[in-house]
Amino acid sequence: MTRTEYEEASKILMHLFNTASFVGIDFGSGPNHHLLYFKRSNHEAWLSIEGPWHVHTADAPFDEGLQLERLIQLRRERVHHVHLGDEHPHLELTFESGNTLFINGFHEQFESWQAGDARPLGGDQYLLVAMPQGELAVFVEEDV
């Protein structure tokens, strides 16, 4: 990913998630597959997680049940900061409480996460996909 592509992707992720509240979750077929919904005024965004993830807190043991509980506790919290990894598209959403949702952006064979602005999946204006091998695909509607 070039510096320009990185900056464009970071800007889109900030637009999608910064100051948006985490409002819901759909559970997928596997332990790492979840669909998260975010809302800010009339703006909606989603984040599909298909790879490893966890919520950073002061005590950091990994237990799926505990992690899901921590994720659900973030419901209705606003995203305070969005960070996209430099080398691979690892995604971090830091909430007002200081807790951070980390989504691994690298997998050898599969997509790690997708994000967009149309429900349930897709993008009206934006769609970002963390592709296999740590690449990031960015789809932007031409009229934007």
The major sheet is characterized as:
6 strands, antiparallel
Distance between the termini: 21 Å
- Which spans of ≥5 residues are poorly predicted at pLDDT below 50? none
Radius of gyration: 14 Å
Proportion of residues in extended strands: 35-45%
Mean pLDDT: 86
Class per helix and strand makeup: alpha+beta
Q: What is the β-strand count? A: 10
Overall geometry comes to globular
Order of helices and strands: HEEEEHEEEEEE
Number of helices: 2
Please bin the fraction of helical residues: 10-25%
Which strand order do you get reading across the main beta sheet?
Answer: 1-2-3-8-9-10
Helix/strand layout:
Layout lengths: L2 H15 L3 E7 L6 E7 L2 E7 L3 E4 L7 H10 L5 E6 L6 E5 L4 E4 L9 E4 L9 E5 L5 E5 L4
Antiparallel strand pairs: 1-2, 2-3, 3-8, 4-7, 5-6, 6-7, 8-9, 9-10
Short description:
This protein has 144 residues and is α+β, with helices and mostly antiparallel strands.
Can you describe this structure?
A hairpin with a 6-residue loop joins strand 5 (79-84) and strand 6 (91-95). The longest helix has 15 residues, at 3-17. It is globular, with a radius of gyration of 14 Å. The two termini are 21 Å apart. The mean pLDDT is 86. It is 17% helix and 38% strand. By secondary structure, the chain is an alpha+beta fold. A 6-stranded antiparallel sheet has the order 1-2-3-8-9-10, with helices on one face.
